[in-house]
Design a protein that fits this description.
With 836 residues, this protein is α+β, with helices and mostly antiparallel strands. It is 49% helix and 15% strand. A hairpin with a 6-residue loop joins β17 (618-621) and β18 (628-634). 46% of the residues are buried.
């Protein structure tokens, strides 16, 4: 311990005498450590920190999916799993919904739509979550005849009920239906696989958009969370689910999810909650790891440069009897002290970066995760700091510890060129820095190329000056199709009459998104059972939608008011997955006319020879017995997001597919934001208790679609830029060191007739050769990185020629500039002073 304290005191004295060097090392390392701390905080929150549930490692998510998307769980499948499985200790169900909370009930001035989670009675006990006030649901309350009860989130309790401890037993109105408050969830309780619902209800067998009877016909609106029994593995549970899936198909062949392509499987709850963010976070972790390696290599170069001035010191220590291990211990103590000081500063930088990520990139992270530093982050930072200290300190320490007394004194006496071994080590460090920096630069270039293509993607509609807002009608007040149609007709009439409004329409899905799917049978295709038919998007729109969104009709006509007559359709809605609209009772309804998109025509009719006229074709939708006549073909629009190819879609007149949850789209002659309040007022004039939600423009929707790739590009761009700067500093410092080491050599060369241009060329060639070597190694690494990034790139090949040509060219050009300064300095060596 005394030796350690002595080494520390000596290290502090050394750093005080070399304040500039100390500051450069600490700042360089702090950048690398801070970046690693920030990204590890994200990794800790998403991938490492246990969920605040009872034995979270045994919790799984159970779902159905086909090759392309999640298909949701229907009531029949859930009850079969609940009653017949042997792999799970408990099976709970949940569904996301939205209901209107009347403002006058809670004391607010305006009606509010709140997010609602419909859960089974065992949901909270299965997770091990207890309320801070009241109790959880009973089995009796989770039955159709049960009393209407709800639990509140802590946020809603504090905001709307002012944290009233006597809220238990009070009655609230949700969609004009009374419900008694029986509990309040604890503050800070998060459910990453759901989000942040404000209200919880045990009526999972209901859904605001469908009567309960329809939910029994295959609507996949549910999600399942289950707890594995002791000793049961995930693989064992999936084997049982595969058997149950076959049994389900045999017993429910008429269900839409009885398709043989549908898989019934379980995965860990964390995998369900994190989704595709795992790969992106791991890529960022690799990127910051590379930045830290470059920083360590840079500092190691600085340490080697500094070793020039400490050779005499180490020679004297050796002459006085110091052992090599003693010298190495002293030098490593200095390195570790520098690294720990940088770690403290890096922790602060990491905290600031984490706050910035939470503010600027929080919307791109999965819901329900908190970006906070905990003990794991601090332990990681301490470990990284210690590792960095060893990495950048070990090579200089070993070099100085091997100093030879006699040769050192001879070098001091006659100034011979020496230190070739140290120069070669610095050369290797520079090559490594260049290679790692180029790898990150190529990665950033690929992301940039991908983002540029995403910015230029054709959506198929005109996004300028279009305002959108959600309108979800109360199921109690607007329970039948006639009332829903009357409300939206009157709303559209009033909105269109506003000054500054050019067009207005409604649609079930927002632009670039989808809401419902249904199995369809296009004319000319094999007549297979319902469960084996392909699913396509079903979009309910008002007749003015195509004009409002400026979507051209390639063939046929648009919808008219004659396309009316509500149908008793049943369908599926699931915002996180897929949906279906499979059945109808069409008694008294007008003949169903539909418009299909070009992708639908290509998929179902383009391969027939001769190709039929789409306007002579029909489509059977779901369980509707008679086929719908195609009356038009619309141009393709992005319906699965900007980055996804357009999928087949069928447009149905809203009047024939009434829906209580619609989106209003208003094209304006001015900035659409300026019309928001006027449009709200017209909706309130139709129903004063009707709230509107998610008021945005279509351009904002497009920006949100680009937000995650933009965020990823920004983060990787910052890291690659930092790495580039560090690598260039490394080239500069290495050449400066080489010039200092070879000062006498240059003097002798010039004394023997070498010109300044020769010396300049010699130094520049040294730097250029190192840069080329680093670029060569970096390109090999970049090819491997590009393959791993393939899923993150939009229509950009992992061997994009422009990126792989431009990145090395830019790097070499900048590297030559970095090499020019020390090379210029070398030409100013005076032969007389050098040889004196």
């Amino acid at each position: 311990m005394q030796t350690l304290l002595r080494n520390l005191r000596f290290a502090v004295r050394v750093f005080r005498q070399n304040k500039g060097f100390t500051a450069a090392v600490v700042l360089t390392l702090a950048l690398g450590i801070g970046a690693n701390t920030a990204i590890f905080t994200v990794m800790d929150a998403l991938l490492l920190r246990p969920f605040a549930f009872l034995e979270p490692e045994r919790l799984v998510s159970v779902s159905t999916h086909d090759d392309s998307q999640d298909r949701g769980i229907n009531l029949t499948r859930y009850e079969m799993l609940r009653d017949r499985n042997s792999s799970f200790e408990g099976v709970a169900v949940w569904a996301e919904d939205a209901l209107n909370l009347s403002g006058n009930v809670t004391g607010g001035s305006e009606p509010t739509q709140v997010q609602v989670a419909r859960v089974s009675a065992n949901f909270f006990p299965l997770l091990g979550v207890a309320p801070q006030l009241g109790r959880t649901f009973s089995e009796e309350e989770a039955r159709p005849e049960g009393k209407g009860v709800v639990m509140l989130s802590d946020a809603l309790w504090r905001e709307r009920f002012h944290a009233d401890p006597h809220v238990i037993g009070q009655t609230i109105q949700l969609d004009s239906t009374a419900a008694t408050v029986i509990g309040v969830l604890p503050k800070g309780t998060r459910f990453p696989f759901i989000g942040e619902p404000a209200v919880w209800t045990p009526r999972y067998f209901e859904f605001s958009l469908f009567p309960p009877a329809r939910l029994r016909q295959g609507v996949g609106y549910l999600n399942i969370v289950a707890r594995l029994r002791d000793g049961v593995t995930l693989a064992g549970a999936n084997a049982e689910l595969a058997v149950m899936n076959e049994q389900y198909r045999k017993q429910n062949g008429a269900m839409p999810d009885a398709d043989s392509n549908i898989v019934f499987s379980a995965k860990s709850l964390r995998d369900e909650a994190v989704g595709d963010m795992r790969g992106k976070v791991l890529m960022l972790a690799c990127a910051v790891g590379v930045v830290l390696l470059i920083a360590c290599a840079n500092v190691a170069g600085l340490m080697l440069s500094r070793a020039i001035s400490r050779r005499s010191e180490m020679a004297v220590r050796t002459a006085l009897g110091a052992r090599r291990s003693t010298i190495v211990a002293q030098l490593l103590t200095e390195s570790l002290l520098l690294a720990l000081v940088a770690g403290v500063l890096g922790t602060g930088l990491g905290w600031a970066a984490t706050r910035a990520l939470a503010v600027w990139g929080g919307d791109e992270l999965p819901d329900g995760f908190s970006l906070t530093m905990d003990w794991r982050v601090l332990v990681f930072t301490l470990g990284v700091s210690a590792l960095a200290g060893i990495l950048f300190g070990i090579v200089p320490a070993l070099q100085l510890a091997r100093v030879d007394l006699n040769s050192t004194l001879r070098e001091e006496g006659r100034g011979a060129s020496a230190g070739r071994g140290r120069v070669r080590i610095k050369d290797a460090l520079v090559v490594g820095q260049v290679a790692l920096s180029l790898m990150l630069l190529v990665g950033a270039g690929l992301l940039m190329r991908s983002f540029v293509r995403l910015m230029r993607v054709e959506t198929g509609f005109d996004a300028e000056n279009v305002l959108t807002m959600g309108v979800s009608l109360s199921t109690q007040r607007y329970g039948d199709a006639g009332k829903q149609t009357a409300f939206f007709d009157e709303m559209l009439r009033r909105v269109r009459a506003l000054p500054g409004v050019r067009d207005a329409a409604i649609s079930a899905a927002l632009p670039m998104a989808w809401m419902r799917m249904s199995p369809v049978l296009a004319k000319g295709q094999p007549d297979v059972p319902l469960g084996q038919r392909p699913f396509v998007d079903i979009e309910a729109v008002s007749p003015e939608w195509f004009e409002t969104m400026r979507v051209p009709l390639i063939e046929g006509r648009a919808f008219t008011n004659a396309d009316a007559g509500a149908r008793d359709m049943v369908g599926r809605v699931q915002p996180s997955g897929s949906g279906q609209t499979p059945a109808a009772n069409n008694t008294g309804a007008s003949p169903l006319g539909v418009i299909v998109n070009e992708a639908f025509v290509r998929r179902f009719w383009a391969g027939q020879n001769p190709r039929p006229d789409p306007l002579t074709q029909t489509v059977r939708i779901g369980r509707i017995p008679e086929p719908a006549q195609v009356v038009g073909v619309a141009a393709d629009v992005k319906n699965k997001g900007l980055a996804e190819d357009t999928q087949p879609e069928v447009y149905v007149p809203f009047a024939q597919l009434p829906w209580g949850k619609m989106n209003l789209l208003v094209r304006t002659a001015m900035k659409p934001e300026a019309m928001a309040e006027s449009v709200r007022a017209q909706i309130a004039a139709v129903d004063a208790d009707q709230p509107v939600t998610k008021v945005r423009t279509v351009t904002q929707l497009m920006s949100e679609q680009r937000a995650q790739p933009r965020f990823l590009l920004a983060v990787v761009g910052v890291f690659s830029g930092t790495a580039l700067v560090l690598a260039l500093v490394g080239i500069y410092s290495m050449l400066s060191y080489a010039v200092a080491e070879r000062r006498k050599e240059f003097g002798i060369r010039m004394a023997l007739g070498a010109g300044r241009a020769d010396i300049l060329q010699l130094v520049m060639r040294h730097g250029f050769v190192l840069a080329v070597a680093g670029v060569g190694v970096g390109l090999i690494a970049a090819f491997a990185l590009a393959r791993l990034m393939g899923s993150m790139l939009y229509k950009t090949g992992d061997h994009d020629v422009v990126t792989f040509a431009a990145a090395p060219a830019v790097f070499l050009a900048v590297a030559l500039v970095a090499a020019w300064v020390p090379a210029r300095k070398a030409t100013k060596v005076s032969p007389m002073e050098t040889l004196r």
